[in-house]
Amino acid sequence: MHPIFHNWKASLLYLAAWIPLGALLGLLISITGRLTALETAAVTVPITVILALVCLAPWYACRALPLQSTGAAPLFGQHVLAAIVVSGAVLFIARLIASGFSDVRPGIAERFHAASPVLAVMVAMIYLLSIAMHYVVIEAQTSRRSELLAREAQLRALKAQVNPHFLFNSLNSISALTASDPMRAREMCIQLADFLRTSLRLGERAAIPFRDELELTRMYLGVEKVRFGQRLQISLDVASACGDCEVPALLIQPLVENAVKHGIALLDQGGEILMLGRLGKDGLRFIIENPYDPAAPASRSGIGLANVRQRLEARYGNAARLEVEASEDVYRVTLILPVKPS
Amino acid sequence: MRIVIADDEELARNVLREYLAKENGMDIVAECTNGFEAVKAVAELKPDVVFLDIQMPKLDGFEALELIDRNVAVVFVTAFDQYAMRAFDAAAVDYLLKPFGLDRFRAALEKVQRRVGEARPSAQSSELRNAARPAGEYLDRIVVKDGTKVHVIPVGKLDYAEAQDDYVALRSEGKTWLKQQTIASLETALHPKRFIRVHRGYLVNIERITRLEPNTKDTWTAILTDGSHIPVSRAGYTRFNSLTGA
Fold first, then answer.
1. Among residues A252, A262, B116, B211, which is most buried (max CB within 10 A)?
2. Least CB-CB distance to A180: which of B14, B58, B81?
């Protein structure tokens, strides 16, 4: 449902705005078609009401064709086409009404015919204007929401980066290594510090090159590799063209952390996390695949995925996708991000 | 003292082994890398104490605790925060938060030594688990002991549970499993829309009920898909109707 109906004051205000618009339409019809006041009202009132409702439709059309990710030609073409259709339909209805009155008001259909071109142009213009206004409203809404979400995500990302479970387990590994292999203990300290420092630095930025996000993910996996040893195998295959793409910071790393926490960590023999990155027509496509134990109690990884989905929606509308498939023992997350041509 | 270590991470086991080597009379009888192994080792080797990690493959530490003999002292070794662990105060002798130092470890050992041979309080670990679970979340599987082995029953495959003194008899896929738990605590752990307490002694998977037959004035009999007959009390009948909207 259109958001304007969530608020009855806004709905009334919207309808009130149509009174002068309807009056303007009526005035134009009566001048060009030489209709009397009564005839004008009989035609104008119903089509104004219809138009008021039809002009809410761009809410759906505008969201289906987001400004950022729709090319100028399809954007222009689709909306103009819609405006022509709407204008044609309104004109048709107006003519039906006019001819309905031709018994009581002889000649009304012919006189109205003279007013048709003006009416058609006016309706199309009003509809296009409504589309423009909807874009303005949607943009304002998204930017407010994404600002809020970005701030929230930043906080959460910082918190998630210093995921206590991960941190304490890593410290425990270091504690174990200090006795058996001090050099490796030191190495792991440094790896952990590098990871924390990098994630704090990247977390402050809204968008980062994909290369940096991958590097962070690699650092994270480096630390986990010490903890899980042979149980954690990693295969990373990312096309070099992906490196320059701008992506929201700290989007991939939490997904990979899920793959470790809910996949590898719950498997006796562990397994391989497979990551594949490609740049295609639909943008950047990144796949994370990991084996998992289907018998393990349902995990709460859903919260992490919901968080990523929210961030994607705030930033890209419905132009980005996050797909999750769980087969018998393989869990696959596919992320598709539209890429700005640089 | 005979000891079992259960942790899926080798480095975490190394810490425990290293600390135990500094003490006298410590005998590590088994090292396990998942919850199944831990339950099995404890049942077979009857150690004095088991050091139990929480996040492990196959069976987590909480599930393992439910199946470990109450005479065996349990020390949780975990990276979980202490608030999450507080609920288990009564069931575990102690909990060590990773990473921990030698002093803290020794304190835990002393606690264990003081309580060797002493059974855990009768407060059941499965009930503690209920208390620790967030509201609105329910079990999706039930673990039971089958001799020294562990059997996992996904809740969708549980037909019904019957109270038998301190135990519940769980009927699943044509077999019956016994678990030390009260039917009331099992009831609170399962989704209230999927399992209904049709009788003081019976908890039934609603999907298994084919029909209810009137018995006497105030009692009914539920016929399940496998042909079992389950008594239904007046209160159970009301609950059934309010759930199915009949």
1. A252
2. B14
Q: Which residues of A touch B79 (CB under 8 A)?
A: 164-165, 168-169, 172
Locate all alpha helices (DSSP H) within A204-296, ordered by sequence. 210-228, 252-258
Please indicate whether residue A253 or residue A173 has the higher confidence score (pLDDT). Answer: A173
Distance CA A314, CA A336 (A): 15
What residues are paired with A233 via a beta bridge? A272
A265 chain-B contacts, CB cut-off 8 A = 8, 55, 57
Instruction: Write down the residue that tokens 């009174």 correspond to.
Output: A19
Residue B35 in this model has a pLDDT that exceeds 90: yes
Query: B57–A293: do the CB atoms touch at under 8 Å?
Result: yes
pLDDT digits (tens, 9 = 90+) for A203-239: 778 789 999 999 999 999 999 999 999 999 999 999 9
**Are A227 and A185 spatial neighbours (Cβ–Cβ below 8 Å)?**
no
Pairs of CB atoms within 8 A across A/B: 74
A180 touches chain B (CB under 8 A): yes
Q: How far is A8 from A287, CA to CA, in rounded Å?
A: 45
Mean pLDDT, residues B23-46: 95
Count of other CB atoms within 10 angstroms of residue A53: 11
pTM for the structure as a whole:
0.69
Check residue B121 and give its pLDDT. Answer: 62
Is the pLDDT score of B225 beyond 70? yes
- The yes-or-no verdict on residue A193 having pLDDT over 80 is yes
CA A87, chain centre distance (Å): 31
Residue A301's pLDDT is what?
59
Q: Which two tokens stand for residue A69?
A: 């990710």
Q: What CA–CA distance (Å, rounded) separates A14 from A206?
A: 36
Q: Enumerate residues 147 to 176 of chain B having a beta carbon within 8 A of any beta carbon in chain A.
A: 152, 154
- At B148 the pLDDT is 83
* A327 compared with B119, residue with greater pLDDT: A327
Cα–Cα distance for residue pair B22/A225, rounded to 1 Å: 29
A179 touches chain B (CB under 8 A): yes
Alpha-carbon dihedral angle through residues B202, B205, B208, B212, given to the nearest 10 degrees:
50
Is the complex ipTM more than 0.95? no
Mutate to test the interface with A, among B9, B10, B11, B83 (most CBs of A within 10 A): B11
Phi/psi of residue B26, nearest 5 degrees: -100, 125
The alpha carbon of residue B18 is apart from the nearest alpha carbon of chain A, in Å, by 8
Residue type (1 letter), A152 = E
pLDDT of residue A146: 76
**What angle in degrees, to the nearest 10, is found between the helix axes of A8-33 and A108-161?**
150
3 state SS of A213: helix
pLDDT tens digits, A311-331: 888 788 788 999 999 998 999
Q: Determine contact, residues B77/B6, Cβ cutoff 8 Å.
A: no
Is the predicted pLDDT of residue A160 greater than 60, yes or no? no
Residues 6 or more apart whose CB falls under 8 angstroms from that of A212 comprise A202
